[in-house]
Amino acid sequence: MYQYLLLLDTEQEREFFQKLYREHRNQMYYMALKIVKNESDAEDMVHETFLTLTEHLMGMIENPPKKNWNFILTILKHKCYNLLKKKKKEFEKKEELESILESTMEKLDERMERMEKKELVMKLIRDMKTSYQEVLLLQYYHDKSNAEIAEILGETQDNIRHISMRAKRKMHKMLESCGVVDPYSFM
Description:
Arc Repressor Mutant, subunit A; rod-shaped; single chain; 2 domains; mainly alpha
């Protein structure tokens, strides 16, 4: 209470403030606690209300007690509801940030999984015989058609189609043995 008294100019204000403080601090605390539902926040709201009252004491001294209590209650409630709004905004921002982070992490996980699968597929392709490697790389990494591959490799389109089918079957079995694909599915 002494910190408040230091803010006051006259002895009359100090005496009036002490009277208000003694008469209303407990009621103010319980009212604030009902609104903010947190002891620490309730204490803060009572403190802030008393700070605000130090600026308005001269106008309150001549008022009847009921009018002063209504004024105090109005200030207290206003401060409590402002705190709740502020906390709600902070909570919403925190939730939004957590949602963005979660989404980013999911995207990152998906990306990592795709990269790992791509690396595995590239490793498996390197373990295949040369004709399978060439056809699969030209088909899937260079988006070439069977006709273009046949021209590049000097083979017939029919032969490229057969090599492609055998290479895909081989790849499927290799992916199956790594546990990447379902053994009962086939491309």
